[in-house]
Amino acid sequence: MKLKSAVAALALSGLAFAASAATLTYNVSRTIGSGSVMGTITTDGTFGTLSTGNITAWSLTFNDGTSSFVSNQGNSQVGVFGLGFTADIDSLDFNFGQAGAAVDFQSPVIGSGVDYWCFDGTSLSCTGGHSTENVNGGSATLSISQQGVIAMATRQAVPEPASLALVGLALVGAAASRRRR
């Protein structure tokens, strides 16, 4: 009877873990000239083309080589335009060759002209250029030209919930087997 209770508890904990694993957090570590963008972006777990609504949280430090700004969902906005921003299990990618595509993390609002990290495709522009990645931490704007699809953020490998549940089930089975002896 105790074995059945242990297995049921393990199954319920596995289901709870799977439900909480719907969101995915990606790590950002970008160098843009003498500046950088560091931090995390969390999505709702969608794979494929992303829109603004798929970004659920972020904490990013914009450094323009002179000053820094910490952007998050409490003090900034994010805008995803077009079809150039995609996600898979390993990374958030941007296609700099995609017409009409741009992604902008900016404080206090999109278009305010300061405190932003923006990447744009071939026909939209954050700063007047096309196919560029830009950062502004409050003092200056740094830009670099980009081509093709580039991983803007990556994830560290995390065990899948099913794998963890199998390991737990094996441990429960081993404990039950040992107890019977």
TrEMBL record:
InterPro entries: Ice-binding_C. Residues 157-180 form the Ice-binding protein C-terminal domain. Pfam families: PEP-CTERM. The keyword Transit peptide does not apply. Keywords: Signal. Residues 1-21 form the signal peptide. It comes from the Bacteria. This is PEP-CTERM sorting domain-containing protein.
